[in-house]
Amino acid sequence: MDHRAVKQAEKINSSNSPVLQYCGGALSPEMEPPKLLWVKENLPESWSMVFRWMDLSDWLSYRATGDDTRSLCTTVCKWTYLGHAHMQQLNGKDSRNMETCGWDDDFWEEIGLGDLVDGHHAKIGRSVAFPGHPLGSGLTPTAAQARNFCVEEFISISNGLPSSDLLFQELGLVAGTPVGTSLIDAHAGGVGIMESVPESGSEAKENDNEAICHRMALICGTSTCHMAVSRNKLFIPGVWGPFWSVMIPEYWLTEGGQSATGALLDYIIENHAASPRLANRAASLKISMFELLSNTIKTMIDELKSPFLAALTEHIHVLPDFHGNRSPIADPKSKGIVFGLTLETSERQLALLYLATVQGIAYGTRHIVEHCNAHGHKIDTLLACGGLSKNSLYIQEHADILGCPIVLPRESESVLLGAAILGAVASKKYSSLTEAMKALNAAGQVIHPSKNPKVKKYHDAKYRIFRELYEQQLSQRSIMAQALE
Q1: pLDDT for res 157
Q2: Which residue has the higher pLDDT, 199 or 80?
Q3: What range(s) does the Carbohydrate kinase FGGY C-terminal domain occupy (predicted)?
Q4: Other beta carbons within 10 Å of 281
Q5: What is the pLDDT of residue 85?
Q6: At what angle do helices 32-42 and 6-13 cross, to 10 degrees?
Q7: Cα–Cα distance between 458 and 314 in angstroms, integer?
Q8: Of 144-148, 206-210, 281-285, highest mean pLDDT
Q9: CA–CA gap between residue 338 and residue 101 (Å, rounded)
Q10: How confident is the model at residue 98 (pLDDT cuts 50, 70, 90)?
Q11: Which among 112, 257, 123, 293 is positioned nearest to 184, based on CA atoms?
Q12: Where does residue 374 rank: exposed (0-12), middle (13-18), buried (19+ CB within 10 A)?
């Protein structure tokens, strides 16, 4: 969510480098090159001192193994590395510690970061590997001891008495334990959920390599990532990718996203006058504020004689771009809009604003799905994981607004499952990431869209207004720019 590098992103995007076509046509300020350029321009002393630049997931695996082999996932999705340069190196023997050949040196030179090319890209990665491939000689003795010490200290504070040796055995953290090349957290969620489909009625599709191409994974928490894969590379303006083999081997990844979803709902609630009262009531009832708001919304249906729940927001419309638009518009300068405010400060009014914001986020997802399908995808099923997937109102509104079923996984922590799958593949428990996904992914509840045609008509109308709100913003932005000339 760090958007300090907006100006640097604009500068980079003016370069028209060939690598930009694999990022939806433009780099986001959330990606590494703009952030690196920001550090170089604003913190020159720190820049001169840096030994390595790493993503968090690469840093963790490096600390665990001492092996500075980077993940194809992080380097391609965040650093502009061209992973398809390794299309002939998919088998296990070739894919470990592959020398980097996908960096575009001209790109780094042109944007003012040519020093990152020095030493065969020593600071940003000399070698890469496919996710799940074993790193180095596994967990180093130092890393194993460090982890053991930290947990031992915690247990000591808790007045536990296990010895160091017992603790070591209980956790299984022994030197040499295989460590798999990492994934970005959201992509780990994709690995943990993309094969979580019901068995009944889909057997024919499951034997078809194209079946997975009809799904989109929503990893929804503070922000939301929208993951879809295809057999062929699809260039989609404003949507990140296509990224080859960064999540699922031999598939091209399309990655949409909304920069603030859970964070936006928190903001809407916490900045409303009724928030303190709501928090106190939720605490007394021992439920979350989200659950209390959902309950309030349900009681309002009869009180206001609304034909259905969604219709309560007839007069409130929200454009959820409070932290810019990551996709499909790719406009980090876009702003949020709330249409229909009054002087009312009640919990009921907050409930309506909350519902309208949930709907606005779902319209954003619909925009991403429609945009992807217009450019070659055939998405007809969503799979959701992350904190917001546990919010039944949030999921049902998404199903109704998109008009397609949403599958929830049996495993509630799909990101952690995806990380575990990497370890399982690294330990040779499974021969491939795909095999492990099919063995360990499992479907839970399926949420179906409303069959009421009036609900569809209503959401189609609100979606039209949703799209118009951004167009109006562009017009107003132009008017003000002219006024300041």
Answers
A1: 40
A2: 80
A3: 216-426
A4: 15
A5: 93
A6: 120
A7: 9
A8: 281-285
A9: 47
A10: confident
A11: 257
A12: exposed
